[in-house]
Amino acid sequence: MPDSVTWLSLPGPVREAIHQHTGIVTWTSPGGQGWSTSLRLILQGTNGRAFIKGTGPGDGDILAHQRRRLALGADLAPHLTAISPPLLFRVDAEGWNITGWPALPGRPWANQAPRSPDVPKIAGLLATLAQVPAPDIVTGTARDDWGHWTDNPDALDGDSLCHSDPKASNFVVDDDHIWLVDWGWALRGPAWLTPALTVLSLIESGWDPGDAEQALMTIPAWRDAPRPAVQAFADANARMWERAAEKAPSHRLRRLKRDISRLWADYRETSWQT
Of 112, 198, 211, 213, which shows the fewest CB atoms inside 10 Å? Predict the structure, then answer.
């Protein structure tokens, strides 16, 4: 389904079910784009503002996958109260699965450019995340995603809750407060994995690899990460994106991910040897 579902295009019973939580909706605005949901709206109701996202009726593997991701993000909310907004409500009606969240103040993205004041805030949040164990509802693992790209899959094992996409648009920043959102792709893995993925995001935003690593050294799990394990991940990630770009050579994003991943993996290997 397109990522352009409007409030008035929702079936009446679905809107009525949402009204039970938000009060009567007086206006709406787009809630940004997302890969895993077709509905993303900011609602102003008589009970306040809310952000809703959801997936509509239908069959097929893609929709089933979207529903699982939506459900996982909602189920994880009680485990993430220190770093992510609380779940306000869930609505299942007319084939629609919808979750409701606070409409957070501030910028719906973090500035991850070099010397940005947002980066220390990100590091502080990730230090808190590294202490959160993965609950049983998280069945996907880092080994599942990267294990077959390395000769050392054991390096990817761990029982920490990991965010697999800590890019700028998955942070919300309001003055000194920062949240990490979109948990539908959460994984179980080593506590250093989310910082490692954030290093890649910083490099994509213009950081040199070494400076990107240093910017996150206030995170104990990253500072103390076993160097061979991180190298195994860096190499595996580079191989994964090289293969993805090879399969679709005209895909700009895949080529970018390939180049960034290889740059970081080569930097780590070289710096380790010197």
Answer: 211
Q: Which of 41, 69, 102 is the last residue of a domain?
A: 102
Full residue range of the structural domain in which residue 23 is found: 12-102
Distance, in Å, from the CA atom of 156 to the CA atom of 190, rounded to the nearest integer, reads: 6
The 3-state secondary structure of 44-85 reads: EECCEEEEEEEECCCCCHHHHHHHHHHHHHHHHHHHCCCCCC
Q: Which amino acid is at 48?
A: G
Rounded-to-integer distance, Cα 182 and Cα 197, Å: 15
What's 63's domain CATH number? 3.30.200.20
Query: What DSSP line would sit under 249-261, residue for residue?
Result: TT-HHHHHHHHHH
pLDDT, tens digit, 9 for 90 and up, residues 30-60? 887 666 788 999 999 999 999 999 999 988 8
Residue 193 is part of a domain; what is its CATH number? 1.10.510.10
The contacts of residue 62 (CB under 8 Å, 6+ apart) are none
Structure pTM? Answer: 0.94
